[in-house]
Amino acid sequence: MAHAQNDLLADDIEAYLDQHEHKSMLRFITCGSVDDGKSTLIGRLLYDSKLVFEDHLAALESDSKKVGTQGGELDFALLVDGLAAEREQGITIDVAYRFFSTERRKFIVADTPGHEQYTRNMVTGASTADLAVILIDGRKGVLTQTRRHSYLVSLLGIRHVVLAINKLDLVDYSQEVFDSIEADYRAFAAEIGLTDITAIPMSALNGDNITEPSDATPWYDGPTLIGHLESIEIDDEAHAGAFRMPVQWVNRPNLDFRGFSGEIVGGSVQPGDTVRVVPSGRESTVERIVTQDGDLAEAMAGQSVTITLTDEIDISRGDVIAAASSPPGVADQFECHIVWMAEEHMLPGRPYLMKIGTRTVTATVAQPKYKVNVNTLEQVAAKTLELNEIGVCNINLDRAVPFDPYAENRDMGGFVLIDRFTNATVAAGLIHFALRRSDNVHWQAVEVDKVARAHLNGQQPAVVWFTGLSGAGKSTIADAVEQKLHALGRHTYLLDGDNVRHGLNKDLGFTDADRVENIRRVAEVSKLMVDAGLIVLVSFISPFRSERRMARDLLERGEFIEVFVDSGLDVAESRDRKGLYAKARAGELKNFTGIDSPYEEPESPEIHLDASGAISPEEAADQVIEHLRQAGILTPPTPHTYDI
Question: What is the rounded (10 degree) CA torsion for 567, 568, 573, 574?
Fold first, then answer.
């Protein structure tokens, strides 16, 4: 590798390596419109930093002749654009990370795509960056994508911007062009809160003002790009903020040691500091800061350590050890920005997994307050979010979590949403603030509880959830089951899909989002009825596994019994007395389950009924009753006593 040599490297390799290890690190991204020269710029930085292996250089020369865009000359973009599709189209698709260093600093740079459809990739690259290099083609000026990426840079908390006005060699290195573009950009940047902007005229292809001042721009007396990147002081808000350490692992190698391991994401800590464990609120004192290389007198943001405390208190993965004088907030409802990253659109009310710090909880997203047209900054009404769209939403969690607003601490205020079935990341989020009502609404303690009500009814409460296609026979079988339970003297209630839509859910349609909300409401009502000690029969198509799992998760183990009424589509359609399938196939009825809206069959239901005609509804009901007997649902619970 043709790396720059220096005297220290030649005389004392260990001292050189130690010096290199302790260089500061700068993470930055390059972004801008398509073909503004982002990949070429990074390739030039790698080349000029002498960080290109000889075999890579030979391959670059060969590739430049085959697929390059510079007429056989070195095409530096090929050092970064590694995907075949990128080389064929001359664009960046994936996020490419590259490392390079100079005598003064180390760098990690993310080359992010310029196309609008790869906004999620750009957000991924920007999430850890300290600085953004926004490129503008000197021939084109400020474009829509320039505004889009600048808005995302501002949203994600990057405060330092290099405005790289590129390809000035194609406009005769005109100062007038440079000044005009800089003025236009600064006017727009002021609208979105970007003020720390350094404009540099350059040609990435020719190397003008990249590492050395260019003779072609005698009118420019500012820094070169490398000079600016080496010297800029990054305001490290994490170091300056209050101490925060999300617990990743409870370290218990033996009976004599119990420590709490994690990465410090804010402030600093010393032995003797008073800390608070959030969300429990318990306080203690730091005894030791342990690392593999020995104890530390102080640890700060960015370091991974193990902390021991003077008191034995309960701490688990996901808890946050924080400065007692300035602890993070704790809440279960937030307003936040959400960047949607999945091909399937967001479904308000659907439960997702939310990973914030080292804690994972269940979250549901409400209908967006608005989505942002990032090209115009206009706030647009929306019912959902599609791929690459950004919106402001309220989000509700199944338990309270420690947090700081994203503007104060990226690690404590940033999160991702994960699909519960595919485990795919579907969104990134940035917390604005906790909703006030989350602090004002509390559970009211009551003396008569579910156990007491169940004993009075002489049965174990449960939800028997009938799911299947329209026409499968769910309502008929559920009605037969209720009649049999009534004859046995059991206390029941039947929630039927059609009946509920006449009242509780009459405001809902049949879009995927409305179907999710339909089931969410019924699941919550079912939970209340179980708390009342009833056996609840629920007959809904409930086409999505995620919502059926959500309903199951609301209840205690053994209280949810899923009954798959399986008729098959052909049989269900043949029983179509209302003519719904015919209308759906004719295109007159949209979002009809089984035709143009999916039905996700249960994977492991407690009861699987063959409703194709092999057994009668009466026999199917008997199977359900027998299962309830074997599961102990029809057995009186243990008596509950009260002190009077």
Answer: -60
3-state SS assignment for residue 594 = coil
Residue 7, CA atoms < 13 Å, CB-side half-sphere: 0
**More confident call, 327 vs 239:** 327
Q: Give yes or no for a contact between 413 and 405, defined as CB atoms under 8 angstroms apart.
A: yes
DSSP H helical segments within 138-224, as ranges? Answer: 144-155, 175-191
Under the banding of pLDDT at 50, 70 and 90, the label for residue 531 is: very high
Catalytic residue, candidates 542, 567, 597, 612: 542
Amino acid type, 432: H
**Is pLDDT of 552 > 90?**
yes
Measured CA to CA, the distance from residue 219 to residue 172 in angstroms comes to: 13
Distance (Å, whole) CA 70 – CA 381:
45
Tell me the C-alpha distance between 545 and 341, whole Å.
21
360-417: pLDDT as tens digits: 999 999 989 999 887 788 889 998 999 888 999 999 998 999 999 998 999 999 999 9
Residue 466 Cα distances to 486, 522, 581, angstroms: 18, 13, 20
In angstroms, the first-to-last Cα distance of the chain is 85
> Is residue 535 within a helix (H) or strand (E), and if so which, with residue range?
strand 535-539
* Dihedral of alpha carbons 571, 573, 574, 577, sign: positive
Rounded Cα gap, residues 70 and 554, in angstroms: 62
Burial 416-439, CB ≥16 within 10 A → b, else e: bbbbbeeeebbbbbbbbebbeebe
Please provide the average confidence, as pLDDT, over all residues in the chain: 84
The enclosing H or E element of 158 equals none
Which residues, 6+ apart, have CB-to-CB distance to 129 below 8 Å?
27, 28, 29, 110, 156, 158
Is 214 annotated in the active site? no
Residue 290 has which token pair?
């342990």
Over residues 404-454, the pLDDT tens digits come to: 999 899 999 999 999 988 889 899 999 999 986 544 555 566 778 888 888
Contact status, residue 78 vs residue 40, Cβ threshold 8 Å? no
As to burial, measured by CB atoms within 10 angstroms (0-12 exposed, 13-18 middle, 19+ buried), residue 292 is exposed
Range 562-584 burial, b when 16+ CB lie within 10 A, else e: bbbbbbbeebbbebeeeebbeeb
Per-residue confidence (pLDDT) for residue 421, from 0 to 100: 84
Query: Which pTM does this prediction carry?
Result: 0.74
> What domains lie within the chain, and their CATH numbers?
7-231 (3.40.50.300), 239-323 (2.40.30.10), 329-440 (2.40.30.10), 450-630 (3.40.50.300)
How many other CB atoms sit within 10 Å of the CB of residue 154? 17
Q: How does pLDDT run across 24-58, given as a tens digit for each residue?
A: 888 888 887 767 777 778 777 777 666 544 445 55
| Region of residue 318 (phi > 0: left; psi between -120 and 50: alpha; otherwise: beta) | left
pLDDT, residue 87, reads: 36
Tokens for 588, please give them: 């007159």
